[in-house]
Amino acid sequence: MGxxxxxxxxxxxxxxxxxxxxxxxxxxxxxxxxQISYLAINDDYLxxxxxxxxxxxxxxxxxxxxxxxxxxxxxxxxxxxxxxNGTWLSYEIQNSFVYTLTPxxxxxxxxxxxxxxxRLLEDYVLLMINESSNRISLHxxxxxSLAECIITERDYGYISYExxxxxxxxxxxxxxxxxxxxxxxxxxxxxxxQPGTDxxxxxxxxxxxxxxxxxxxxxxxxxTYGLNILVGLDTEVNFYDFKVVQATDWDDILRALQTLExxxxxxxxxxxxxxxxxxxxxMEIHLAGxxxxxxxxxxxxxxxxxxxxxxCHLMVVDIFxxxxxxxxxEFSHIIDSFLEWDxxxxxxxxxxxxxxxxxxxxxxxGYSYTYSWxxxxxxxxxxxxxxxxxxxxxxxxxxxxxxxVGYGDPFFEVGTVLTEKLDYYCRCIRDAFDTTDWPDIVxxxxxxx
Length: 449
Prior knowledge:
8 helices; elongated
């Protein structure tokens, strides 16, 4: 219920409106944001989370129910935020303990909470919760500590992120959720507490500083893994069958580089250099924005795609949609190309599409995969999902992706077709690659019997 005595509704169809319970009148709100994914409301503000129509990234707005004014979060690339009378507190997608405080007046600052959670209270005070030391503390908007409390009787529970102000007793009620599912309520009066440690703030890096940081990270990854990585305006926008929007925000790119590194470090040493074979001697990764089909009749967006161009394996990734699983999936397509090339060089090569397809159940139509939900649901132990039934390489990519991400249970149970597929693919990889310095079990082999 809003301050204007209306109920705010966000329907499954994507419509958002204020409903007057007395008259039944419906008033549309935020019609310019058709991709709203979340609404929340308190007495003063309507919080809106939506996907940007061009980049797909999450955007945040607050609608002041008292004035009708809309306030858009001034920083990008965040997954959560709070707002109160011109002050924003937001946290990043990849690290929920790194906050950006944007005051109503002055420049934004970076707050590294050090594995502590920070909230913005209605009275312009920062609340910091330190789970490891049972501390809660209040700070002003400069980070100076105002009061601190150590809760000694927690019974191995955790502190709720919600503090309830008390008009009757003053101060706040603190909720402790115990691991035995019981709840305890404490009262804390900050006026009777001593200050603790201040929160250190740091200035937000300038665009030039961020660009240098990104360039340094790119060079580091390129030198470590033997790849070419293109970012920002260096990425291409037109490809065969696809067109791409460039991603130019340095914060977004830096987070994307971290996700890429998280995926790269899961492969054995020298793995990617072995993917130089025949005429293909380079691998190029473009960290970009939204990917759509060149044919405008198709309106779908894509997480990533891989193409082979002359002497180069080309991978293009939408950094706003991709996670480590995306990279595992796309690298599998490149592995496939290497296995096919290797099979043409060696008569005794283990890999072949015919052998792979022979692992499918009798009801499945051989090599000519068909995108068929009806076929997929006949036996969940044969395919990861219906997307796997498009063709053999997508089937293999989904198997390897799930094995690496850790989605093995219940997919790779002993004796299932999926486990046989995983075992065969893992043996094909070891057969084609030089595994001399590999560990006994690499990540994608973790579910083998």
